[in-house]
Amino acid sequence: MLSKAKIKEIRALEFKKFRDERGLFVAEGNKLVADMLHAFECEWLMARTSWIAAQGDIPAKELLLAGEGDIRRVSFTKAPQDVVAVFRKPSWPLDGANPESGLVLALDGIQDPGNLGTIVRLADWFGIGYIVCSKDTADVFGPKTVQATMGALARVKVYYAGLDEYAGKHKGSPVYGTFLDGENIYSRKLTQHGIIVMGNEGNGIRPETAAFVNERLYIPSWPPSRETTDSLNVAMAAAIVCAEFRRRGV
Questions:
Q1: What is the C-alpha separation between 185 and 244, in angstroms, rounded?
Q2: Which residue among 86, 126, 188, 226 is least crowded, i.e. fewest CB within 10 A of its CB?
């Protein structure tokens, strides 16, 4: 039976304060939870009988069969599916995000949960396993962001750190960023290792972050002479940049 206390406990995880205090986060949805089960420690899971039967062994500390309306009571989505789970937040060593051996995304003040989740998803698509976020970037473990990752969070490790400190530890690596005065990304030489910085939705890359970007890129509109929109959505820009790096080959 789903108690009122348990409902209150799960609903509280909508807020970063409680996620940080308890070290927990919520995921929901049939495929999303299935992807998460073998990547994170599952503290609690509630699902309909059909979903449980399709999974086989479920590594959850507490497993509850969902009664009529139970999932809707704890869901953060408009159209709940068959399962909701609470996972323990991971603790990954930042040393794993090594731009000397591969590409690492760095996010400078991304605020929109949907943008962040989409960027995690595209990083997974393009084989970028590490993302380093500035400390004021949206929380990747918020319900909306977790949902937007579509399970990619199970394969992409996301860290929060001072970007200047992180870049300072890897001074020998190229640091790429997109700017209006940068060089055309399609003609600029690109490496298959380094840091790719993506900036805030409204303000782009901050001056203090731009100070350590040593490879300034520009995504041109087409055709160059035509009047067009002022900028791209940050997730769209990240997709274009990552695709061009990968197009050049491993």
A1: 8
A2: 226
